[in-house]
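Figure S4 source data
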Amino acid sequence: MTGSFEDFRTSFSYGSRSDISFKFLKSMSDEDAAGFFQQLLIEVGAAYDTGDVSQILELAYQTQISGYEPDPEHPSRWSYEDRPFVKLPKPLNESRVGLLTSSGHFVAGADPEPFGVENMTQSEAEGRIGEFLRETPVLSSIPRNTPRDQLVVRHGGYDTRSVVLDFNVSFPRDALVAAEEAGRIGELDETLYSFPGATAQGRVKKVAPAWVEQISGDSIDVMLLVPV
């Protein structure tokens, strides 16, 4: 059974086409999305002749920006006019910095085993996104010196291929180590944290106090929060 262009456009979401780079299509109109694909094919054709794909990447990047740009006439219920503010207790170059991401990383051998499944694959996680959205997430503790080949990622809500190639895309451990070595931050904490963020906000709020209590023992001055 064939679907409409609208069905295709809105399928770029959890559990179907989970490529996070193109989820913006879901929020676009059919006309604007069609214009994007038309221009994309033009740029692909040009790349055959020139071998230069930079315009393809630029088109995808700029369309992603416009696709996610808030509509002032229809504000999102997730938009906030203000946010909590806490002044740093000391300069950043004297502060201990922590890292908490919703990227779904964990250390090999410490798999949180969602739904009791051992060695769940990324493909299976994407196929079970509906269950993840109803499940309470598990916070994984990751030593900062974890070898690259021991750092694992699995997440039902996005395509992890880029992250597998370079985990710093969503888990910027190396960037923070470099900032520490350059003296831009005082030090990076010995333990970093991650959880699969494809879950209901209400469930995160329920476990957040326990997470805060767990992390507070690290005496962190600044916590870097990295969403996916």
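Figure S5 source data
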Amino acid sequence: MVNLKDIEDTRKKINEFIHHTPLIFSNSFSRLTGRDVYLKAENLQKTGSFKVRGAFRKLLGIKNARKIITASMGNHAQGIAFAAASLGFKAKIAMPITAPIIKSEATRAYGAEVVFYGRNYSDSLSYAVKQKGYIFIHSFDDPEIIQGQGTVGLEVTEDLKDMDTVVVPVGGGGLISGVAIAIKEKKPKVKVIGVQAEAAISAYLSFRKKKIVEHIPEPTIADGIAVGRAGEITMPIINRYVDDIVTVSEEAIARAILLFLERKKLIVEGAGATPLASMLEEKIKTKKGRVVLIVSGGNIDVNVLDRIILKGLSASGRIAILEIILSDTPGSLASLTDSIASRNANILNILHDRLSGDLPLGKTRVTIELETRGFKHIDEIVDFLSNKGFNVKSCMERAVAKPL
């Protein structure tokens, strides 16, 4: 098993190749959650994620070969590609066709050969391990990879002497294994909590059943942790050192990404936003004290980011979609829009439908998208319109987390 000395020795080996990323105190997140919140900003790391740490540690240990292959959804791919280019290796990366475009293009830009195979990480992994003439590097289930990722935890203990909880994204378990060893061996009373997306819960199930449980991931914003099987090496470490693993919804992840943008001016990918999402959904049970959120990466496609911003706005009540049945007569739509304007809501889009089969003759359905200030504001608008005689309903699901 990986130990603290392994991680400390690794830090000395890779120190010249990586950033010691900042630990940022967040006033806004602290007020929002009622705890002192610190952000370990690995989204500011080289290649945009923590993965470069394990990549350098692994490649620095390879002496007799210069051709390597790995499988990855994206961040590990970039870390390996960057480290390989820096150290003179030829890298081949197997990625699923569902990997984010920004990650595959960045991997190529670092000089690696990219091969698309299968629809998920498991498919790409099965391809990579069968290739001849290459040294295979696992993305998380490898002692040296874990040692590299553990340097994140070492930096946290150096930069914050007193903490109560560390919250870590979990896919296959490489990051949380290393971080948990570093934290628990130096500060045994600190709680280490893992977070998975509800769409990819292999480690969550494995932790509870104390055996590895496979779970095919569903589509998720947190693509970086969409792993169907936790590691044979990582799970025993997790079972020994980690206090709990929780899950978070897609809506909470989207809302967290939006909060990072608005409140901290940080671009954070879905996986990196899961620790904040866990606090928004009140999954972290500590009621006070200092909480460190490991913001694992910031590699997010701008087209996906646009959709996530809209989803996050909806989840926090900043966008409302209302459906109103109107009389199809002159002035009805004007009366509706005037009423909405009087409630200080901005109209973004209107869809006017007279032809649906479920509409009586003389009626029209108006679907209207509004910019709003939160759920209380939406309720005020709906109540006001209802009292004015409009047949109105909300067409959106509310986030589980408390509104801003």
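The longest helix spans residues 143-159. The chain has 15 helices and 14 strands.
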